[in-house]
C-alpha cells in the first residue's frame, strides 16, 4: 500500500515506512492513494465482526511488517489489546 504526504505529494512511502517515520516533510500526514471499496452487504458483515477482525481488513500491511508466521488477525489482536492502569 503506497501512501503520499498530504503537504508534499511527491513524497510517497510504504505503509511500513509511514508507521516508522510518523510525519512526512513539512509535518505532513500520510494518506493512502486508494481506499478500499465495500458493498453495503460487506459493510453490514464487517459491523457484525469484532474490532480486531474488522481492523484486519483495513490493515493487511501489518502482516508484512512481521514474520510470515504471524497472521494479520493475530498481529492486530496483540497490538490492539489495551491494558488498564
From TrEMBL:
The gene is thrC_2. It is an enzyme of class 4 (lyase). GO terms for molecular function: threonine synthase activity. SUPFAM superfamilies: Tryptophan synthase beta subunit-like PLP-dependent enzymes (SSF53686). Keywords: Lyase. This is Threonine synthase. Residues 7-52 form the Threonine synthase N-terminal domain. InterPro entries: Thr_synth_N, Thr_synth_N_sf, TrpB-like_PALP_sf. Its EC number is 4.2.3.1.
Amino acid at each position: 500500500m503506497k501512501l503520499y504526504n498530504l503537504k508534499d505529494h511527491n513524497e510517497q512511502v510504504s505503509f511500513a515506512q509511514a508507521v516508522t517515520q510518523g510525519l512526512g516533510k513539512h509535518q505532513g500526514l500520510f494518506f493512502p492513494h486508494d481506499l478500499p471499496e465495500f458493498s453495503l452487504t460487506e459493510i453490514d458483515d464487517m459491523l457484525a465482526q469484532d474490532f480486531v477482525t474488522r481492523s484486519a481488513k483495513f490493515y493487511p500491511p501489518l502482516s508484512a511488517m512481521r514474520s510470515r508466521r504471524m497472521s494479520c488477525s493475530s498481529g492486530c489482536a496483540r497490538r490492539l489489546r489495551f491494558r488498564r492502569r
